[in-house]
TrEMBL record, chain A:
InterPro entries: SusD-like_N (IPR033985), SusD_RagB_dom (IPR012944), TPR-like_helical_dom_sf (IPR011990). Keywords: Cell outer membrane, Membrane, Signal. Belongs to the SusD family. One of its GO terms (cellular component) is cell outer membrane. This is Putative outer membrane starch-binding protein. The keyword Membrane applies. It is found in: Cell outer membrane. Gene3D superfamilies: 1.25.40.390. It comes from Algoriphagus ratkowskyi. Coiled coil: none annotated. Pfam families: SusD-like_3 (PF14322), SusD_RagB (PF07980). Residues 349-451 form the RagB/SusD domain. The lineage of its organism: Bacteria, Pseudomonadati, Bacteroidota, Cytophagia, Cytophagales. Residues 20-224 form the SusD-like N-terminal domain.
UniProtKB/TrEMBL annotation, chain B:
Residues 125-232 form the TonB-dependent receptor plug domain. It comes from Algoriphagus ratkowskyi. Belongs to the TonB-dependent receptor family. This is TonB-dependent receptor. The lineage of its organism: Bacteria, Pseudomonadati, Bacteroidota, Cytophagia, Cytophagales. It is a multi-pass membrane protein. Its main location: membrane. One of its GO terms (cellular component) is cell outer membrane. Residues 1-30 form the signal peptide. The keyword Lipid metabolism does not apply. Keywords: Cell outer membrane, Membrane, Receptor, Signal, Transmembrane, Transmembrane beta strand, Transport. PROSITE patterns: TONB_DEPENDENT_REC_3 (PS52016).
Amino acid sequence: MKKYILVILVASFALTGCEDFLTVVPETQLSSATFYKNQTDFEQAVNAAYVPLRSIINDRAWLLSEMHSDNTYYARNVLFGATDNQEDLADFSVPESNGTTANGHVLQQWRQDYLIIARTNQILALIDDVDFEAAAKANVKGQALFLRAYAYFELARYFGSVPLHLTPVAKRDEAALPLSTEAEIYAQIEKDLIEAVSLLPKKAVQTPGRATEGAARTLLANVYIQRKKWPEAEQILAPVLTHGYQLMGSYDLAFPGNTANKNNAESVFEVQFIEGAAGLNGNFIYQFMPRPISAAELQPIMGTSNPQNIDGEGNNIPTPDIIAAYEVGDKRKDASIGTVFLSGSFRTDKNYPYIKKHAKQHSQNNNTGTNWVVYRYAEVLLFMAEALNEQGKGGAAGYLNTVRARAGLNNSTAAGQTELREAIFKERRVELAFENKRWFDIVRTDRIQEIIVPYGQRIIANPLDYYYPPIAGAVPRSNAFTNIKKFYAYPAAESDLSPYF
Amino acid sequence: MLNYYQTFIKTRFIGFLLALFIVSVSTSYAQSVTIKGTVVSEGDNQPVPGALVTVKGTQKGTVTDIDGEFSIEASVGETLIVSFVGFTTNAVLINANSTNINVTLAYSTSDLSEVVVVGYGSQIKREVTGSIQSVSEKDLKDLPVSSVAQKLQGRLAGVQINQTTGKPGQGMNVRIRGQLSVSGGSSPLYVVDGFPITGDINALNPDEIQEITVLKDAASTSLYGSRAANGVILITTKKGSVGQTNVNLNVYTGWQTVPEKGRLEMLNAEEFAQFKKEYYTDAGQPVPEIFQNPADFRNENNDWYGAMMETAPITSYNLTVTSNKEKVNTAVIMGYFDQKGVVRNTDYERFSLRLNTDYTVSDKVNVGVNIAPSYVVDNTPQTDGDRGTGLIFNALHTWPVMPIYEEDGKTLTSFNRFPANTGNIFAYPNWLRSADEITNETKVINVLANTYLEWKPIKGLSLKTTFNAELNNSNYFYFNPSTATNRINVALPTVASSVRDEYQGLSWLNENIATYGRSIGDHNFEALVGFSNQRYRQDRTRVAADTYADDRLPTIQGAININRGGTISGVNEWSLTSLFSRLTYNYKGKYLFTASVRGDGSSRFGADNRWGVFPSTSLGWVLSDEGFLNANSTVSFAKLRASYGVTGNNNIGNYTQYALVNNTINAAFGNTVFPGAGVTSLSNTNLGWETTTQFDIGLDFGLWDDRLTFVYDFYTKNTTNLLYAVQIPQESGFTNFNDNIGEIKFWGHEFSLTSVNTTGAFRWTTNANISFNRNEVIALADGIDRVYGSQHITKVGEPFGQFYGLVKLGNYANAEDLANSPQVPGRSTVGSIKLQDINGDGVITNGGDNDDRTIIGNPFPDFTYGIINNFAYKNWDASITASGSEGNQLYMRHLYSTANLDGVFNMVAKVKNRFRSPEDPGDGIFGTTVGGGNVTGIERDWNNSNFVYDASYFTIRNITVGYTFKNLPKTFKSARIYGSAQNVWVLTSYWGGSNPEVSMQGNGQGDGGNLSQGVDLGSYPVPRTITFGVNVTF
């Protein structure tokens, strides 16, 4: 009899209750099944979509688009190795095989841009099905579209054709997509930004730091200019002139401080940092310092109470070329470039230039809250000048001269479309120096041969002028300036995983 | 959840419990006489104290005294069973005249009649059809080490046990039959008194162990279902011997040292200064003043590694009280173990208590309770790890010209940095201070409890229900005061920081098992059915804080900043529901058959794949019982066995199947932090266990009355559905997709033998084993044929986790050689490392699938072996345990710093023979220093064959010599003193450090613990230990 009781118990146990007992959901983490349900969820989701911008700006944008130009170079330190990832970018010697490269910065740029795209795709795929307040929804959606377009614009300029992901990936076999043409990518960017312009609030009513209608218009104008769509650029940009933006009184005030002056009147879009231990800080100015620099040499520049020596190899050092590019009397020169004496240097002249315009006083060593300006009103004026001049319209010189006036310079003497084109190109170089614009300007104006090739020849001929120490063996590497191309090769690590490139 | 569980227990089990509690008690009476006798050993006719004398079929029993004498009540017609470990069991029928009997026990070489513990029961060894091996406590008792696994080194065929670090209580890597998983765990399942534990086996006092059984093949393990693929180690704790009360005290104490021999040979101060001088000279630069006369440093060497080491005491006390009289069988074991470490400021202490009690309520009902609390305090500096985190690595690569002590020779320096113009790049704190001042302490409370109720309603039927609980409470405390750091280039004072990490784990298991055994004629059956539920929950609270106002108050409230990035509260939970059954049948004990099956439902498996079924079957044939061998006097025993079965590995993480949202991806706008959230993983509702299908064939053989016994096994197994985070293109926004992929094939041969070499007064026995384990990756995921680690590759068609890199051919001998050889564009120079152009494209490239890298080494041995010799002569006994590994290699990863030719760190002495010029090319191992990191970086930063060295070893693990006192006063039952030396001698050609068993796990992408074995970053040395002990029984 008792045996039967046992059998019944076993059977009843086996048939019921198991699923409940065996369902153990994570208690301390949210899962996708329970998220994306309300306004707060979507606001948090769009906040996270901004996050990869910090890594892009702090750690590689300046390597891929400023040091990869004639504006900055590295200060060779022969005692250090493992520096070829950066050197290859500055030296136009990024190793390439079968259209791919192992360069880590190229890889990370790719990954961070697609992280923005994946996070915005999640939002855009789900937000229309969730009911919440219309204005808030439009704001979130507009920001998501802005960020997705921003990421694709970077990818299109760095790589050309790239995979076009517009919906969230849910399964393994959806992870890789074929390459879409540059035209297809730009079409999507334009579409997203036109919608973003209609959804986003103006700067006056937006949380400072988030994307605005003005930012979307400026980004779209940049896209049109890249595509040489001059009338469209003028048209989309014109309303920005009435949004209340203005040039700051002096050039140095255009660049935010560690806590003050962020998202100021000139600012159109900035990548945001906060100093402290919460992980929202930057340290790009430390990466820009020539080395080896002692704590005592660093302290006056950073103003911290705990400066530390920095060894290694300094990057993003202003070249003699950019220093010479400023006209006499240009106030921007001293505001942009400082000089620091490095007692530990092997060079005879131990004075090095550094990027002063981004160096703002802060409190903790290697931890800054200084924002990075992506677009500011001075560039809006120069975009406007360029769009008008390229259409052969008048008024271009006026916008150019507004920018020059603040720099303490007389009106441009350029006459005619061609001269004015040159004047605007030169003005962009000095006004926007060290703002990661130079490489893109050179590419979109088809001046790679004209500018980069002779620049490389100058370095190889006169390495001492470009911060090499007077030491045997400390010369430009034999592969320097051997891979000068419009686009970067695709990252090898991604290529290994994708069947399409 | 707890409420739910309580309800669950009530509704499901109360009925069952009630059924078991309804018992009937019956007793019987018989006429008895008192029998006295003496037990002596055959051959030397010595009295055998401690032999067990029982009356067959009853609970009655006694033990012989120091003179081998006993006295017991028995009835005429009953049989006395006399047994003692190491002797064959003897049976004596009681007749009317048997009031005084002498029993002679023959020395046994075979333990075939012994009962061994198997999964969910026990079996007579000769009837076992699976591949198992058991070790008794008497073989392990003298070894002066902290953990069970250390004691097993060299003893088990097919089980590789490596001590990867000398940190007390840590670093034992146990792998049964070479089992590996890409990302799931590979440690065996430890089952203590029937309870699969979740905590650390090292917390168990080895003196509590009676017997260890290792289950290797699928037939032995498949009753453990989804947790069995890595093999199972069953641990049975001590019980009293029938009729006996013993009080045993075992104490040993001794000291540990790190032998000079085998240490990594680094440059001394003078040699280092000489290197620096040559470095500048060769580069055509002025030599800094301080290095112009290297001889100045002749008497100022600073051996940073040596200074970290000290001679350290080790002490162990164990008091064991066992009693098995009347209806109560009790064992109480109290242990205290204290091991100071050979690295400064190491202290590992374990306090343990175990109380095992069985109570015979009646002939039909038994109950039992085991409860074993332990408390471990482990205070060990952060010795192991990469440069900048591991103090051993840090000490090795610190300049020997930097002073350890101030001028007074006693006070430790705090910070060492030469002026920048000496070409120094890094600043070093004093690592001895780091070891002394940084707190890195873990306190663990472990409580293991088993209870059972067994009811035997009819003959042959047993109904047993068990409740088991395991509590682990682990408290980790780390405090880095402002005066110390374990990183290079951190100026002192630094920012004081702390981490508190507390885990509370609770595991519950209820098992209900019915066993029925019956013999019908020559047909013997045993059937088992059972079901069980286990649930585990772990709560974790980690608080990281920094910027302390005062180093003396490392409290949380004393910190100015709580580091939110490092502060975590988390829950880890799983549940497992199982049904299992086994049928054992044999005919005349000659033809043996077993089949078993287990079904496991696990919360870890995806909703669409919740239940796994794990069947097995095995056959045995005792050839020696057949007529054709029966008459053979040479062959005393022969058994052929074969098994086949399926097991699983459920170490796939608790929530891997879910798509998780990270809600700490915070954004900044202005000066305000805004919370952010994003999906960080993809869901997989089909995620399941890893499946291993194993076939085993074995032969057990005994010759000359089992004086020589021999066991051979061949196995082959395939592991499929490996859990792997398959890397996916990050254009998806995700890094990987957790899936069950691929297939690995394992196969191997195991031999073990036991031999009684001499008998009589001088008795010498040998146990030896040798194992050959192989594996090959058959498949990975669709479209993926390889997985890269930092120094490894796991590739289809090759063995798992091979070292991967470029092949070094030498150094470019001269300008002509350079011009005519493939180069690293822009970096190769005369004297720099010359690598093989594997892909034949004319240049050397490193990266991508089609570069010049190839497989350059194998961390797995060709074979491993162990040999144990035991000797006894009169009162003396001795044993020598040795083991070895042949054909495995290590990746000497620390060379990336300790052979950094830029002279920023101290270097291995071999760099003295580097390339200096075409006329002075050195021994070819290390290249030129000229050209700086751009040149030397290749040899240092690119994985290449210059890092790979043979690490075969033969180690004499232990030598013990003991002396047993005889003719003791009656108060003593036995007394023995012994001396023991552990890790006596290591024979190896490996020169990268003192421990050829080291294996540091890497971190980079594609690395899991298993994918990246055999990497040497320098680790806590394994000491040589000399101890003396006393073992007295009252």
